[in-house]
Each structure stands twice: as structure tokens, then as C-alpha cells.
Amino acid sequence: MNLKTTFDGLILKNPLMPASGPLSGDLEKLRFMQTEADVGALVTKTISTKKPKIPKPCIYAGKDYIMNSELWSEHPYQTWLDDFLPALKKDLDRPLIISVGYSKEDMSLLIPKLDPFADAFEISTHYVGTDLSVISDTVKTIRRLTKKPFYMKISPHMADAAAYAKTIKEAGANGVAAINSLGPTMNINLENRAIEYGADDGFVWTSGPAIKNLALATIYKIKQAEPSLTVIGVGGVSKAEDVIAFLLAGASGVQMLSAALLKGKGLYKKIIDDLPKALEKYGFDSIEAVKNTPLKKNVLYEDRLPELIEDKCIECMLCLKTCPYFAITFEDKITFDPEKCFSCGLCVSICPTDAIKMKYVGD
Ligand SMILES: Cc1cc2nc3c(=O)[nH]c(=O)nc-3n(C[C@H](O)[C@H](O)[C@H](O)COP(=O)(O)O)c2cc1C
After folding, report:
1. CA of 180 to the centre of ligand 1 (A)
2. For the stretch 259-289, what's the b/e string if a residue is b when 16 or more beta carbons lie within 10 angstroms of its beta carbon?
3. pLDDT tens, residue by residue, 267-302
């Protein structure tokens, strides 16, 4: 199965990359990503000009999310330039995307120094506000400083993804990495009567499977608004099927971090190993075939009753307990009330054994 994906002259042997963060925060971790995780391209933790003051603890695991108050690389940019990057470059056998933050002034200092090591740049503007004229100036500055492809990372607090895409395209960026972590968010520790983790203001960023649907919508919005932009999809990926969904939404490559913090660093390799089977299951013979598949219009149910597949039903009653229209009863078997059923679809998606079906319009 051909897992290769290419964009802007970069050739990745598979579409999965680490998202910028602690798992690509120094030489040892980037080497792990190359030799053991075997990702398609490396992406560094964000390098910036100032030393970050990171409140500890700084990573909190919820059930399907991670909260963090990390800032950017704790290592000075000079350590990257003198130690990590020259050593990494020696046996680098795949593209290296260097993440840089944050202001126009930071870019002017860092991009020329990092350029000899980078195959591409990813630019975080997570801490510079939402003013598109500031983003535009930053993009124009970077375009003057490098010929390498660069991708502007979009933070979810940027309200209009389409306007962001238009702005950065006009200013000269190659694409967008969508999305950074979501915030501000916070958690409360009941025992301590305290805010769980965070910066001075108590707010932290949320990432992981809980934000996947926001990432998908943002990727799709950007690709619809500016089809010529490359999109790198990130946010909530945790399995091979997610990679396929992100590519269908419009991404050319996919990054992951939080799911590996929740499930283990072996997850990168597992997803890459699982991809061929998942592609085959959904009728694709390569990653490029997924990228070239247009999404069909929305799934719509015919306005009629759900159908029970009796031999699949385990009578767990979950559909009955959750039906918001009180339309499901149990009389020897699960039964749907035609007067009450709203064809909302909840029972179809919630059934653990796929025992409830609705007919799609056009099927
Ligand atoms: C602990 C932690 C540190 C992060 N550090 C950075 C960073 O330095 N630069 C950056 O652009 N994004 C950073 N991110 C955001 C991730 O790169 C990614 O955009 C976000 O977590 C969504 O992807 P995920 O759900 O796969 O983690 C960080 C996320 C976490 C959880």
C-alpha cells in the first residue's frame, strides 16, 4: 500500500507527523520520532527568542483530552542552532519542519538562522492575538526571509478560519497547519477547591480527541475558502481512521500529539502500521487516492422510522434510555413509535452493536 504524500516539494513516506510539542522538544525526542515512530516528517517544538516561564505542573490528562500550560521550547534557540539541529541533520532521512514563534521581530531574528536546517517552517502565532493585519505582516516578513515552504498554524481563538486563510495566502504563505490547542479552558479540582493547573490566570489549552471535530471543520473551511493552500491537519487524531478523515476534509498531511500522551508514544508506529488495513477497508489504494477524493454532500436520513436489525440487538436498552423524543419502548423487542420518532439519528449512532439503521436519502 502506497502511504506516500507529497506537497510543496516535500516527500513524506507516510502522512503522519508529530505535532509541535514535548515529543519533539530536543534531539533525543526527534531521533525517537525518526527511528522508532517512523513518522513521515519531523516537526520541532516551537522555537522562539525568549526563555519561557512554564508553570509546573503543565500537562494534565483527562479521559479524552489533554490540558497544558506549556509555552514554547524551554531550550534557547542557540542550543537548537549549535547542538540539536546540526546533530539531527547528520542522519536525517525525511523532511524537517521547524516550528517558529511568534512575532514579526522573532521571525526576522530566527528564520535566517534556522533556514539552512529547515525543509519547511511551521509558524505559531498562538500568543500574538487575533488581528489579521499583524498575521499578514508576519507572513510577508517570513516570505522575504525564506524560499522554503511555510505553514501558518491557526489557533482556534482565530474566529474566522476562511478570512485567516485568505489573509495568509495573499501575504505569501504556502498553507495552514490547523489547529493549535483550544482555549482558554480550565478544570477545577474539587478536593483542593482550586483551579487545576495553569498559568497565572488559571487558563490552559485543551487538545486531544475531544477537539477532533473542531479540527476537521477548520481544515474543511480553509480548504473550501482557499483550495490552493496546503493544509496540514492536526487536533485530536488518535487512530488510522482519523488520518483518513483529515485527508478527506482537505489535509495533505496529519499531525498528532495528545493521543500519544494519553495512550503512549508507540501510538505513532501503530497508526502508521494500521493505515494500510484502514485504507483497504474504506476502498482506497493509496494516501494520494484519499486526497483526491471529493467529499460528497451531507448524509441525510429519509424521514421515516429507524429499522431494528434484531439479531444484532443485545437489548442493552441504551437507545431507549437516551432517546430524547421518548419514542423507543421495549415490548419483546425494541420498538419505535411513529408518532413520536423525530428521525434524529441518535439511536443509530449510539447503538454499540450497530443494530439500528436509517435509510439514507438517495440510497
Ligand atoms: C503539552 C503540549 C505542548 C504543546 N506545545 C506546542 C508548541 O510548542 N507549539 C505549537 O505550535 N503547538 C504546541 N502544542 C499544540 C499541538 O501542536 C497541537 O496543535 C494540539 O495539541 C492539537 O493536536 P493534538 O490533539 O494531536 O494534540 C502543544 C500541545 C500540547 C498538548
Report:
1. 6
2. bbbbeeeebbeebbeebbebbeeeebeebbe
3. 999 999 999 999 999 999 999 999 999 998 888 888
- Measure the CA–CA gap between 318 and 48, rounded to whole angstroms: 50
- Is the shortest distance between the CB of 180 and ligand 1 below 6 Å? yes
169 closest CA partner among 133, 204, 206, 136: 136
Q: 3-state class of 322 per DSSP?
A: helix
- Residue for grid cell 478560519: 161
On the question of pLDDT at 363 being above 70, the answer is no
Is 149 close to ligand 1, i.e. is its CB under 6 Å away? Answer: no
Q: How does pLDDT run across 202-232, given as a tens digit for each residue? A: 899 999 999 999 999 999 999 999 999 999 9
Residue 359 has pLDDT above 90, yes or no: no
Ordered by where they begin, the domains of the chain are 5-291 (3.20.20.70), 307-357 (3.30.70.20)
Q: What is the pTM of this model?
A: 0.96
Closest to 133 (Cα-Cα) out of 93, 108, 170, 78 = 170
Mapped onto helix, strand or coil, the DSSP state of residue 277 is helix
DSSP designation for 299: P
Instruction: Please give the C-alpha separations between residue 359 and each of 312, 314, 335, 342, 349, in angstroms, as whole numbers.
Output: 17, 21, 17, 14, 13
156 Cβ inside 6 Å of ligand 1: no
Q: Which atom of ligand 1 is nearest to the CA of 45?
A: 8
